[in-house]
Amino acid sequence: MNKDIIKEIIEMAEIQSDPRIICDWLKQYHPYEIAEAFTELPEDIRLSLYQAFTNEDLAEIISYIEPEKAADFFEEVANRQIAGIIEEMASDDATDILNNLDDDKRQAIINLLDQETRTDIENLALYSEDDAGSMMTTNYLTVESGKDVKDIMREIVRNAPEAETINTTFVIDKGGKLLGSLDLKKIIITKSPCPVDNIMDINFRYGNVDDNKEDIIKMIQNYDIDVLPVLEKGILKGIITGDDAMDSLVEEAEEDYARLGGLTESEELDEPTMISVKKRLPWLAILLIMNAFVAIIISAFDFLFTYESLTVLVIFQPIILNMAGNSGTQTLAITIQKITKKQLDNKNKIRKHLGKETIHGLSLGLTFGLLAFFLSAAILFLAKDFSIPVFKVSFIVAVSILISLTVANLSGALIPITFDKMKIDPAAASGPFITTVIDIIAILIYFTLATVLIYLQL
Amino acid sequence: MKKTLDFIKSLIKHRDKAISKKMKHLHPYDVAQIFGQFNQTERNYLYNNLMPIQLADILSYLDTVHTINYLKEIGTDKSVPILEEMSSDDITDILNEIDDEDFRAILSKFSSESQIELAYLRKYGEDQVGAIMTTNYIAVENELDVKEAMKILIQEAEDSETIDPIYITDNGKLTGMLKLVDLIIARSPKKIKELADDKIVYVNVDDNAADAVAKMDNYGLSVLPVIDQEKMVGIITIDDALDVMEKEETETYGQFAAVTIDDDNILKGTLRRIPWLLILLILGIFVSSIISVYEDFLRQVTALIFFQTLVLDMVGNISTQSLAVSIRHLVRDDLNTGRKIFKHLFKELKVSFINAAICGLMAFAVALLMLTIKHVDNKTMIALVVALSVLVSQIAGGLLGASIPIIFAKIKIDPALASGPLITTLNDVVAVVVYFSLAAVLLNLV
Hints:
The complex is a heterodimer of chains A (458) and B (446).
Chain A: H1 2-15, H2 19-26, H3 31-38, H4 43-52, H5 55-62, H6 67-74, H7 79-88, H8 91-98, H9 103-112, H10 115-125, E1 141-144, H11 149-159, E2 168-172, E3 178-183, H12 184-189, H13 196-199, E4 207-208, H14 213-222, E5 227-232, E6 235-241, H15 242-260, H16 273-300, H17 312-340, H18 347-383, H19 390-421, H20 431-453
Parallel strand pairs in A: 1-2, 4-5
Antiparallel strand pairs in A: 2-3, 5-6
Chain B: H1 2-13, H2 19-22, H3 28-34, H4 40-49, H5 52-60, H6 64-74, H7 76-85, H8 88-97, H9 100-107, H10 112-121, H11 129-132, E1 139-141, H12 146-156, E2 166-170, E3 173-178, H13 180-185, E4 203-204, H14 209-219, E5 223-228, E6 231-237, H15 238-256, H16 266-293, H17 295-300, H18 303-331, H19 338-373, H20 379-410, H21 421-442
Parallel strand pairs in B: 1-2, 4-5
Antiparallel strand pairs in B: 2-3, 5-6
Helix pairs in contact in B: 3-5, 5-7, 14-15, 16-21, 18-19, 18-20, 18-21, 19-20, 20-21
């Protein structure tokens, strides 16, 4: 569908000199679809559309575009118009985009904003990115205590276009202190006259501006909250809605996922190549250094390879490393998820989890050690190289798999837990990182066994 | 938590007649969290003294398995009023889990209208829209006058999950929606269809639930209407969407590491991991046999052994990164046109090339340093073999990691599974062949 819109816009632009006509035609689409098309359009057509759409329309369309991308588009628009667009946006969306602009441009735009929007945005900017304050919006409905239900109705009708949601109206006192919340359904079915205080729910859930984002999302999820009021010292400061929680949930999950894959941050589809390089290179560089250690360890065992028959050990090395590495990554993924979901929040649970993973490793190690023993013996036997101590080499491969799988599972669980205890994000322990740590251990085990069982007895 | 438990226990102990009223300020989620800590007598007291709607709220926050056990304690007759208070998606979850005989027994107690509805909802699998939607919504016919519509709204508001927007139908067929505010300010006489917004986003009842939730996320909707052959049959609300989303994210995350996240049973957990490792072992033997072809090279230049793991690992690492990026794009349906796929792969090629070049340079320095310390002959050439191998096979590994999940998706195999043994093995094969071929050429090995 998207592809057709783009094609049609381009065709229309060729024959139609008035972009306003394109705009009118585009309005049959949902702003999300227009936003999708926007990112794919040639720059000149986009520029003409900025002129033809109202700021209100643009605000709506841009709120569906990733903040980083939206900031790029703002490079194409005059600061005055940007200020006009920002004034029409929800304050949390506006803040996200402004944070992606460079300092000079941001300040220039903020100076052009009307007083109300500027205060909202400056207030939101005070909260750190992990705090509930940074994800709330200030476009909500309030009514003062003592008013009649009819007044709420009036308030809703007047402010609905700007409000993020009309499902809940908040009852506050003169100082802005939150007293209760009012469900839209209740307002609709209540007959006037009736003071709002009589029908408001005083048993509402709320968050504080400095609460942790993840805790807020959990609360919204657990209690099935549509609209969560956010307070600072009892004063209502903003709201967080279910779809904000959904966005955050996706964002968090994407970060965790990206890190498991060894990226420092998750990537967008059309971000510049060098940005992606920057997100991937740090881990690659660290891993290369770690692999240099692997090389050093192997070279320390070079005496083994003075015997021609022992180069055969190198052949089986990838099997041991791959199996241990992959098994360790599985445990890692499970452990990180458990930490994120707060299922490992006391010593007892941690001990149980570590024990379980060790048993996993042991039983997998036994199974595959045994299997690998017969497989490698068969291969060596078929090779008919009689200088190779078939039994001993197979035995070493088998025992290495047994020990490596056990250690791999244990460290896959232990490392993220240790990170978490040291207040490092456990997701920083990526799959590639764990794999390399396990490689170092597995190689030490493999070649030490070979030294003891074969080299020292030759 | 403890406070809530003690509070309720003391109410029960004193046989407090007002328990239903006194528990009203507690959130059903909190009560559900501690529900398992009541004993049979205490539970019976709650069953007998709370209102059906209170029990319904509490039970819908529990895992379905537990809910069913409690409903069995309550008995079929008393369960029906409780079930009637639940929203239709929660009932469906429960009815999907109980066996057919119990299902029929319970169903027969419902009104015939509900019977038809529940039988209909039970048709859908848990990953389909039908299983997560609720039928408690408000729809008005487009020929109605705004005044009549308002009357319907006021009547049905209590039983509806949301009243904004209101959906508009034409003989049951979904034709548009209406913001509540517009209805409030409209003056009679005016027909509903004059106010309708026909720009409407919807899903089909048999669509994939996760896709529907992704749609809600993209379009920024807190309610999504569901249709069955054009007729409106339900809505998905944001709280249900959040649950689906979380489940989906957990699954994708687990699949990337080829593991099911919740394997609480040790034996089951072990068994589940076996097939995957078994494939890896067998494919590993294949890699081994390729290396054995080159075993002679290893005997001639022992130093090649030192760096084999480095080359293999670095290819695996870059490949895992590309894989993670590609799967993520696939899950988000970012790669829905040939042009986007081409653009994405071309970018992956560029990113891999730059990173491979930098890693190659670093590998050269590392190898040269080590070989110098170890006094190995021909050190520059060996270091060059290592560096070029990292460069060439990392580019290949990056492309494999980016493209294989896309190919899997095209042939309708879950791309997250591609992360497993296949890519690992392909990477190893590429790396080994490149490494030893370069060694043969640059070090004149035969």
